[in-house]
Design a protein that fits this description.
- With about 150 residues, this protein is mostly helical.
- The chain has one domain.
- Helices cover about 80% and strands about 0% of the residues.
- It has five helices and no strands.
- Helix 1 crosses helix 4 and helix 3 crosses helix 4.
- The longest helix is centred in the last third of the chain and has 33 residues.
Length: about 150
């Protein structure tokens, strides 16, 4: 019986976090692209555009992780709020650091940059700070379009 519950919990976990998992795979793919290909994909062409991109990617990633926690706890996130925020913070920052290390070793056309990591972390922190506010707006917009 316990194995069945674990499998169901695993399925619920994956269903809750699938948007964050997909976004993490997108970040991974972009981290492994050559620097030239990433520059070709860029829609921005200004100083520090790459930092804005890092900030935005991790802002979205962290928001999706928190959204996953909210779904996983079936909107009873209040009981688990501190753990959810800490896990989201740790997952995002560790993942950002690992992506920078991966760029340093896995792709000779890319390099690890401390300021990219800072931009990743800043995006993470702002997403976590604004999560409750943004989630309320998201739900109001969703209700507006559904009704």
């Amino acid at each position: 019986m316990k194995n069945t519950n674990r499998k169901i919990s695993g399925k619920i976990l994956i269903l809750s976090f699938w948007p964050a998992i997909i976004w993490a795979l997108i970040i991974l793919a972009l981290s492994l692209f050559s620097g030239e290909k990433v520059n070709q994909l860029s829609i921005f062409n200004f100083k520090f555009a790459d930092k804005v991109a890092h900030f935005g990617m991790y802002f979205i990633f962290s928001y999706l992780i928190m959204y996953g926690f909210k779904n996983f706890y079936l909107n009873d996130i209040v009981k688990h709020r501190i753990q959810a925020y800490l896990f989201a913070l740790l997952i995002s920052i560790i993942f950002g650091g690992l992506m920078e290390i991966l760029q340093m070793y896995a792709n000779p056309t890319r390099s690890a940059e401390f300021y990219d990591f800072i931009a990743d972390s800043a995006g993470t922190l702002l997403a976590l700070i604004l999560f409750e506010f943004l989630d309320k707006i998201y739900r109001k917009v969703l209700v507006f379009f559904i009704s």
